[in-house]
Design goal:
The structure holds two protein chains of two kinds.
Chain A: E1 4-7, E2 10-13, E3 19-29, E4 34-39, E5 46-50, E6 54-55, E7 63-76, E8 86-91, E9 98-99, E10 103-107
Parallel strand pairs in A: 2-10
Antiparallel strand pairs in A: 1-3, 3-7, 4-5, 4-8, 5-6, 8-9, 8-10
Chain B: E1 3-7, E2 11-12, E3 18-25, E4 33-39, E5 46-52, E6 57-59, E7 67-72, E8 77-82, E9 91-97, E10 101-102, E11 106-110
Classes of the chains: A mainly beta, B mainly beta.
């Protein structure tokens, strides 16, 4: 099983600041099957990034994904009020499909 | 635009079987893998398993002995059965076409 470890657990930032979220895999992940999601309270996760770096339909361009192999990064260039949420990484190229434990981006 | 909708009981008693159905609209159940993912209250996401439209399925080893996921392409539906449930199975259950399409989720509470 591929274990995904996200860091930090919580990120306290102000609107307008840059957020950098990390997801590290216990073994190499196929980038084609790597995604980032945003989840707000009471809502289902929403796909932000797929194939490690491709923005999903409707994802603002302030969100960018990068990385390969075992290290992946989600960057939010300038935080907007609606970006404060929990973010999950996922690999779905190897069974069992796995998620990171999440990074909460909170208002400082 | 594909839409997914979970349905089933919101409450199950310990040791009984949890059964949920996901109805696919705006698209066909063929040609995809269809997944179930769950999220205990206040916790992270756990992949339960998936089923291909051909009927081939894959399960999380942690749940494999208790899980069955099946598909009915004639009804554009797929289903989850989880046997011998305990309080630890209390969660919001999502049906998903990874990575794009998620149902809104349904809370299933296991209690006597």
């Amino acid at each position: 099983e591929i274990v995904l470890t996200q860091s930090p657990g919580t990120l306290s930032l102000s609107p307008g600041e840059r957020a950098t979220l990390s997801c590290r895999a216990s073994q190499s992940v196929t980038s084609t099957y790597f995604a980032w999601y945003q989840q707000k309270p009471g809502q289902a996760p929403r796909l932000l990034i797929y194939s490690a770096s491709r923005r999903a339909t409707g994802t603002p361009d302030r969100f960018s994904g990068s990385g390969s192999g075992t290290d992946f990064t989600l960057t939010i260039s300038r935080l907007e009020p609606e970006d404060f949420a929990v973010y999950y990484c996922q690999q779905y190229g190897s069974s069992p499909e796995t998620f990171g434990q999440g990074t909460k981006v909170e208002i400082k | 635009q594909v839409q997914l909708q979970e349905s089933g009981p919101g409450h199950v008693k310990p040791s009984e079987t949890l059964s949920l159905t996901c109805t696919v609209s705006g698209g066909s159940a063929t040609g995809y893998y269809w997944s179930w993912i769950r999220q205990p209250p206040g916790k992270g996401l756990e992949w339960i398993g998936n089923v291909h439209y051909s009927g081939r399925s894959n399960y999380n080893p942690s749940l494999k002995s208790r899980v069955t996921i099946s598909v009915d392409t004639s009804k554009n539906q797929f289903s989850l059965r989880l046997t011998s449930v305990t309080a630890a199975d209390t969660a919001v259950y999502y049906c998903v076409s990874i990575p794009d399409y998620w149902g809104q989720g349904t809370l299933v509470t296991v209690s006597s």
